[in-house]
């Protein structure tokens, strides 16, 4: 190839979010991240994904940290690198659809606190559920000159998901005002030659930059990246080697080495990457030792291609079965998942649809009768509260689970009243910053527990005065 066609592949680093979400249930604390930020900032990444997804819930619930505080600290540390987050469309980072005023507020606060790129997806690829977040990002960009709306398409298999489907959806994403497109292959289902075909098709349909995100679960991800890069993809997501592979992403250093000396050469310094890897390795060893990192999620599971189950969903399912002393039903549940997915209109399996389908599959297996018990989320999906699926839902299941109920065909958020004021009035005695209202909006109970804990820490409450009944946390 001649010199002119140099096209260095851009890289988004996921170790501060998706990598540890996928391998150790999002338990990496902020304090552990901060000492390595300066070195990571020197690499030359396209962006560092460090927020959103499950980080918000895990910070409040398990780490007793304020996620907004994490974002501000990371923003202070990264002087030259764009920060990126994952945002679940109308569900934001929670598990229910929110009113547009909450979505707009959350987008504004995310960018104001340091996020540059918001990757927005919907678990059904229902673009109506992404429009409010894209509009909010664009509005902020016009006012403040910052913010990038990336729409992510959840990649999945099924006869409805044709090349035409992906091309048409790419065109529609461009029309809705997004800045770029991500193909989000959360379960590692995109195989190398299919990736090549898909990137070329989508490139012919849109001028927007295309980013590819996949997981190593099925063992093909590095090869998929290779073919995608050759086919013209603009950015790939990778993770530093100590938290790469398994249910995480391909390793950053490996991809950098793969393209060295080619037109796609990243120009990254392997010595610098090695220092960053050295920093994370002891933490990985510690996680292996204390059981946070389960060797089960580190291998290749080709069954992924059969069951289309993302890694996070697998680990979730294992812990649900463990709680019920029913680990021996693992494969029964795996086989039930595609059946539930089909009943619910063949949606992609990604948060929250993956949890909804997975939990329902667990119930169906453990109860001995399918849909004998349906979760409230399954009912909401069947009612149409999560949006439109590509295929119709099973009428038989609809009749069994929500007999005679009216189903929704419009964008569900159109039925929701603005809710910011109401939310604020419910938690105002604990409000220390505007962002607290949003934390409460997403996880009311968990945020309340955190606010009480925070107050106890600030006031240094002693055990004899602890108000255990109301869940205050003494020091």
Radius of gyration: 22 Å
Number of helices: 20
Strand content: 5-15%
The major pleated sheet works out as: 8 strands, parallel, barrel
> Could you give the order of strands across the largest sheet?
1-2-3-4-5-6-7-8
Chain oligomer state:
single chain
Outline type: globular
Kindly state the percentage of residues in helix.
40-55%
Distance between the termini: 64 Å
H-E string = EHHEHHEHEHEHEHEHEHHHHHHHHHHH
Structural class: alpha/beta
Report the strand count: 8
Low-confidence stretches: 471-475
What is the average of the pLDDT values?
93
Which structural traits does this protein have?
475 residues; alpha/beta; eight-stranded parallel beta barrel; 8 strands; globular; disordered C terminus
Could you explain how this protein is built, in words?
The protein is α/β, with parallel strands linked by helices. The chain contains 20 helices and eight strands. It has an eight-stranded parallel beta barrel with strand order 1-2-3-4-5-6-7-8, surrounded by five helices. Helix 7 links the parallel strand 5 and strand 6. Helix 2 runs parallel beside helix 4 (67-77) and helix 18 (420-427) crosses helix 19.
């Amino acid at each position: 190839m001649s010199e002119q066609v140099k096209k260095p592949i851009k890289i988004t680093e996921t170790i501060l979010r998706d990598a540890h979400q996928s391998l150790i249930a999002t338990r990496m604390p902020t304090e552990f991240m901060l000492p390595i930020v300066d070195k990571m900032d020197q690499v030359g990444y396209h962006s560092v994904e460090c927020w959103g997804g499950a980080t918000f819930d895990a910070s409040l619930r398990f780490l007793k940290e304020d996620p907004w505080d994490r974002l501000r600290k990371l923003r202070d540390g990264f002087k030259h690198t764009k920060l990126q987050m994952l945002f679940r469309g109308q569900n934001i980072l929670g598990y229910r659809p929110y009113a547009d005023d909450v979505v707009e507020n959350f987008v504004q606060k995310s960018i104001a606190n340091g996020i540059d790129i918001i990757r927005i997806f919907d678990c059904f690829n229902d673009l109506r559920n992404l429009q409010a977040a894209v509009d909010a990002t664009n509005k902020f960009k016009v006012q403040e000159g910052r913010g990038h709306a990336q729409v992510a398409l959840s990649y999945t298999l099924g006869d409805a998901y044709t090349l035409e489907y992906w091309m048409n959806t790419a065109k529609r994403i461009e029309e809705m005002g997004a800045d770029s497109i991500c193909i989000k292959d959360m379960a590692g289902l995109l195989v190398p030659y299919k990736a090549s075909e898909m990137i070329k098709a989508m490139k012919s349909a849109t001028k927007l930059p295309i980013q590819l995100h996949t997981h190593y679960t099925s063992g093909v991800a590095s090869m998929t990246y290779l073919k995608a890069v050759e086919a013209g993809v603009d950015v790939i997501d990778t993770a530093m080697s100590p938290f790469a592979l398994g249910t995480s992403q391909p390793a950053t250093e490996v991809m950098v080495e793969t393209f060295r000396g080619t037109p796609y050469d990243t120009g990254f310094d392997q010595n610098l990457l090695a220092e960053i890897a050295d920093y994370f390795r002891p933490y990985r060893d510690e996680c292996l030792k204390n059981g946070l990192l389960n060797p089960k999620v580190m291998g290749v599971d080709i069954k992924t291609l059969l069951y289309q189950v993302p890694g996070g969903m697998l680990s979730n399912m294992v812990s649900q079965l463990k709680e019920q002393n029913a680990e021996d039903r693992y494969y029964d549940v795996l086989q039930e998942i595609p059946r539930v997915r089909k009943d619910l209109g063949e949606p992609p399996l990604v948060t929250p649809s993956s949890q909804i389908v997975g939990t329902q599959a667990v119930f169906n297996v453990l109860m001995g009768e399918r849909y004998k018990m349906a979760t409230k989320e399954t009912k909401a999906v069947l009612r149409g509260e999560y949006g439109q699926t590509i295929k119709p839902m099973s009428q038989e299941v609809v009749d069994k689970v929500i007999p005679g109920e009216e189903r929704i065909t419009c964008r569900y958020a159109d039925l929701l009243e603005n809710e910011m004021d109401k939310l604020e009035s419910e938690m105002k005695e604990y409000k220390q910053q505007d962002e607290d209202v949003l934390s409460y909006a997403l996880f009311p109970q968990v945020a309340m527990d955190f606010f009480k804990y925070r107050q106890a820490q600030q006031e240094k409450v002693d055990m004899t005065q602890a108000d255990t009944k109301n869940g205050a946390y003494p020091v």
